[in-house]
Amino acid sequence: MKALRKWQSVLMGLGLLAMSNVAFAEDVLDTGDTAWVLVSTALVLMMTLPGLALFYAGMVRKKNILSTMMHSYGATAVVSVLWVVLGYSLAFSEGSMNAFVGGFANAMLADVGLDDVSGTIPVILFVIFQLTFAVITVAILAGSLAERIKFGAFMWFSAAWVLLVYAPICHWVWGGGWLTGDALDFAGGTVVHINAGVAGLVLAALLGKRKDYGKGNLAPANLSLTLIGAGLVWVGWFGFNGGSALGANGSAAMALVVSQVAAAIGAIAWMVCEYFARGKASALGGASGAIAGLVGITPAAGFVDVSGALAIGVLTAVACFLMIQYGKRRLGIDDSLDAFGLHGVGGIVGAVLTGVFVSTEIYPDAANVDMATQLWLQIEGVLATIAYSAVMTAIIGFVIKYTIGLRVDAEDEYQGLDLAIHGEKIAD
């Protein structure tokens, strides 16, 4: 009996040790995973600076190139500060209204120590990785506002919007809110792209059309800048989607594969559409198609296989092309650089199609939910994001419009915002 009790004690001890090791393994730093997310963070920031800044700058007139680039730089500055002060806490901590928004537990990064680990990466790394997502979301919506918004108004709007709109929606989907675990969004189809696209469209409507919209020559000043920017955004998207796996693993690798496939087929699909519509395939069209494909695959990157990526890339590119070429005129809103046409529409299509093409081999949990149910959950997330983003953007926009004003005066718009706002211009 003594021997039996001895072995029982040994086995119990081993069992407890094994259990402790399993528990510990859930929160142990992995240097490979950490290195990958560090690199991904830099790649995502590169998407904004200089990627998106150049992408947008090439599509405006010469007199507005610097002011358009400053939207990306300004968004990066104000969002970076507010994210560590309060935004991260609202998005990822628990609060009294946790279904809707987080609390203040991590304001000023309180209780975020150097040794704190979440999964296999430092918590502080997750903070700045998510910061780059918040930055690019605000920078994307600026594309709808180019060539007529006051820089100060944009900065105030960015500050209010990232806390009152972006952070709550981020919490819904990724931070433990009411959509977490239901609506699939691997890297930001709803949180980033639908959110930014809808907000840009609403604020563009409040701003009104450019004075010479539909009348004067609004041709892009330098499409070479746009192509360079699109290339940087394309490469940076590897960090956007691949980094969202939060580890150097097969999920990250598959995210890279499907992202590349969707971008490539999106570019091809757009140029084919252009050829049939106008007889020529443009450089801007190729770049736009690649971005559309990347937007569409973003919510699905961790959930679909290559066949799903091909379908999503084609369908998203075609939908965005139709919106920009034909739907935009029907809306009657001057979405200057098609932030809604590319990101809003692309995000909607990609989010919905994620529910259609989710693969049980890539994402085994999909076997627990039938397609109809998952499709409804995706649509629910899309509709909620559209509604909240539109209403809150309108409220913030109205407050700014009737206090400091949103739009530059006609003389400044005619002169160009580079000189009128920043006192600088590109040499003739």
The first-level CATH class name: Mainly Alpha
Helix content: 55-70%
SSE sequence, one letter per element: HHHEEHHHHHHHHHHH
Inertia-based shape: globular
The structural class is mainly alpha
Put simply, the count of helices is 14
Could you give a short account of the major beta sheet? 2 strands, antiparallel
Report, as a whole number of angstroms, the end-to-end distance: 97 Å
Radius of gyration: 23 Å
Strand content: under 5%
Structural description of this entry:
This protein has 428 residues and is mainly α. It has one domain (29-422): Orthogonal Bundle (Ammonium transporter fold), CATH 1.10.3430. It is built from 14 helices and two strands, in the order H-H-H-E-E-H-H-H-H-H-H-H-H-H-H-H. It has helices at residues 2-25, 31-57, 65-92, 123-141, 151-174, 189-207, 223-242, 250-278, 283-297, 306-331, 339-357, 371-401, 410-415, 417-422, and strands at residues 117-118, 121-122. A two-stranded antiparallel ribbon has the order 1-2. Strand 1 and strand 2 (121-122) form a beta hairpin. Residues 1-25 have low confidence and may be disordered.
What are its keywords?
68% helix; 428 residues; 2 strands; mainly alpha; globular; Ammonium transporter fold
